[in-house]
Amino acid sequence: MYKILFSGCQRLLLTFAFALFLFSACKKTTSSGPVLTGVRYYAPSPSDTSLTSLTPTGQWVVLEGHHLKNAVQILLDGVQVPFNAALFSDTSAVVQIPTVIPFNSVAASDLNTIKYSTTEGSVDFKFSIVVPPPSISYTSDEMANPGDSVWIHGTNFFLVSNISFSGATVSSYHASADGTTLAFVVPPLTAAGPISITTKSGTTTTPFNVEDNTNGVLCNFDNVFTYQWWSAGLDNNSATYPGNNGQYAILNTNGPLNSNDGSWWNGGRSINCNGAQWVPVSHLNDPMANWALKFEIDVPSPWSGVTVYLAHNGDWTYIARYEPWKSPSGAVSPFKTSGWQTVTMPLTLFLTQPNNGLHGTGTPAPDLSTLLGSSGDGSINVYVMNDSPAPAQLVAGIDNFRVVKIK
User: Yes or no: is domain 135-205 CATH 2.60.120.620?
Assistant: First the structure.
């Protein structure tokens, strides 16, 4: 009898122990830390293919694995990724890749790493995160003199190995943390040439030359002197406008212009030049956006309200408005420069006059031939008027009118 009771108790203890083991194992499994197994496109099948690398372009992806709920932090190369936990399941997490990763300052231990943390733990998942190739948007001054400071604006200026400005190598530069600007002092120059930037991910080169006083130049008031008539004065005084390249014109309203004053022919308020080639005839079938009017401007005192109008051949059918003091929403913020800077106006900005009566606020020409004529040439005409509701004034140096291919 004793043996039977003992044996029964033994079996009961073993059963209880086994139940505890199962409970413990189950609890351990459900509370495990996250596991990442891959990354795929966030798109309906069959486009939801697996990825082998990521680039910081703002794309949406799916992180795949196990125990991905209850996330508290996701890092890509050390950069925190915002997320919406409602888009997560136990086996997938939908996230948006950052548009910028500051690769210049990423620690070596964080490179090519997705760090996924939940309330139960974290995992480091090695995955290729690639620096996109660089691109150039614009340059602060394309006609800068050696020794002047210049900023190149664009994207993905990370891990830069070479900068060439007008054919001259830049040996020292400063890159912004977000990879959008490069600042340097212009080295000695010998000829016109493009801007070229090489990084670990590739090379980008401007389709036009900087420091070019010949190709596409309509008027630079020096070796290409087509200035014809009317009222803007000419000067070459570097004390007034430091960093100048020879002569320049001065747009001057000579005090505040009254509201809706359109008398552009009055003293100091217009630049009119003889004809020159805007776009070669062989390129008149190019897209409008491939070509731009460029010039340099120096505005030493705050400017708002006054509009600079630019026209081809004095034709008011298509007018470009230069109003750097006005935001796209219409908000006004006085504008000034700290020296000469380059203005780039794609020819798509030459617009018609719509029903509201404001020149240059309608639609662009359908093609280059419509804007420039079958010969692609013509004069450059610049007028200063005040369309704003209050008196305003402008005094500015302006130089180097040219039309160049930007794409």
Answer: no
CATH assignment of 217-405? Answer: 2.60.120
Determine the Cα–Cα distance for residues 367 and 337; give it in Å rounded to an integer. 33
pLDDT in tens, 242-282: 999 999 999 999 999 998 888 888 889 999 999 999 999 99
Determine the Cα–Cα distance for residues 186 and 140; give it in Å rounded to an integer: 12
Paired tokens of 150: 């210049």
Query: Domain 35-129 class?
Result: mainly beta
* Cis before 302 (ω within 30): no
DSSP result, 214-253 = STTEEE-SSSS--EEESS-EEE--TTTSTT--S-EEEEE-
Strands laid side by side in the 60-66 sheet: 35-41, 60-66, 92-96
CATH 2.60.40.10 residue window(s) in the chain: 35-129, 135-205
SS3 67: coil
Other CB atoms closer than 10 Å to residue 323's CB: what's the count? 18
Element holding 144 (H helix, E strand): none
User: Percentage of the chain surpassing pLDDT 70?
Assistant: 92
Residue 318 to residue 315: CA distance in whole angstroms: 7
Burial 328-347 (b: 16+ CB within 10 A, else e): eeeeeeebebebbbbbbbbb
Instruction: Summarize pLDDT for 213-234 with one digit per residue, the tens.
Output: 999 999 999 999 999 877 799 9
Residues 6+ apart with CB under 8 A from 23: none
Q: Nearest 5°: phi and psi at 231?
A: -105, -15
Mean pLDDT (the chain) is 91
- In the chain, CATH 2.60.120 covers 217-405
